[in-house]
Amino acid sequence: MSKVKLGAVPLVYPIPIVLVGTNVDGVANFTEVGDCAVMGIQPALVTISLSATHHTTKGIDNTRVFSVNFPSTQMLSLADYCGMVSGCDVDKGALFATFQGEHTQVPLIEDCPVGLECRVLEVTQIKHRRLFIAEVVECYVSDQFVVTIDGKKQIADLIQLDPIIYALDNRYYGIGSPIGVGYREGTCHKTS
Amino acid sequence: MSKVKLGAVPLVYPIPIVLVGTNVDGVANFTEVGDCAVMGIQPALVTISLSATHHTTKGIDNTRVFSVNFPSTQMLSLADYCGMVSGCDVDKGALFATFQGEHTQVPLIEDCPVGLECRVLEVTQIKHRRLFIAEVVECYVSDQFVVTIDGKKQIADLIQLDPIIYALDNRYYGIGSPIGVGYREGTCHKTS
Question: What is the C-alpha separation between B100 and B96, in angstroms, rounded?
Fold first, then answer.
């Protein structure tokens, strides 16, 4: 197979679309972010990256807390809008019904199926990118997306959560069909 | 809407499934990782997280380079297998046809549509999780997934790339349909 070199392009895919919330000068603000990942289950870690000069960055630097909210596809236009305009110019907190995290005063979005309340542990800046590594202190799930399996409350599948997915071709996508189960699909390759 | 609290759970979704490659004691090794994200376009940054004791972690600590390879759904069983067994016990480099990065000696997977050659910039450890922040020094794309738009070489859409998606319900998913374009869907909310 022949490979084409595209240069120094961070072509990670697919990219989860999230709305990062924080208070900036006491006002709730949300911005659309694709630079977000889980970094560990126990401890419960997430990382996000923002431009050092962004309005949201100022809020996280001051409060040391943020929320990560996962919009469903029916919220696509609002999510995209939050990436188009700055909280300096538009009151983006007013776009959503919100609630406060119980452990911090971070704002979360009521209509997002899942929201994470996060406390910053470490900050790293590389050129103009500011990376926040944070612990999740609470995970809020809208009740219709909670399922009980073997007596334990768990999250519904991605078909029901209906996330927004992004890629560096600048397109948004929906989720596809389930194709397998973790730690089971590879069993066929075991030699003993 | 009523919210259910699930505790300190890092419920980020959807999660991209990648195969992280490195040389461990001079032998190519690959492991399945979901803890991976783009952290910026310019500079081209990615971050991954691994358990501090893992075989791959030892290789990255020693070489300061790794690759991020994006398997398509037809590679699902091999990807899952790479997450089930350790490079201490199984020669996982032998599972794939590989090629070397031009800037480093990092191994990349021939059959993955996209592979990133990465050089570590910073390392952070939080409890047993070791986070590597890296710059992408080259992006390799299989030629059938490169499209030329306005004279510029770009990546094909996610339908063609056919990535593996994971979620914390321990299911794998395929990609769904395109649903919009970045910085366009939100235009309807502009007030002026």
Answer: 13
